[in-house]
Write the C-alpha cells for this entry.
Amino acid sequence: MNKEPYKAKIGEHELIFNNDEVKKMKQLGITRSIIVNRFKNGWSRFYIVNQPKRMSRKDFDKMLTIRKQKSIVKAAAYKL
C-alpha cells in the first residue's frame, strides 16, 4: 500500500521526493511550479522541501549567505 515517491522532472534532471517530504511540502503550500522555480534558481534540496511558500527577508538573506559560503568553499577546494 506504499505509494510511489513523487517525481518532478525538470529538463534532464529528475527530483524524487519521499512521502514525508511530500507531506511537509503540502503543509507548507509548496506546489510543483514553486519546486521548478526554486530548482532553476539554484536552491538546495533542503530549502526546496523545508522553506515555506512565503518567507521573510531575513530568512531569504540567511539562505543567500549560506549559499555564498558553500560556493566559496567549493571554489577553495577546486583550487587545491
About this structure: The CA atoms of residues 7 and 16 lie 5 Å apart.
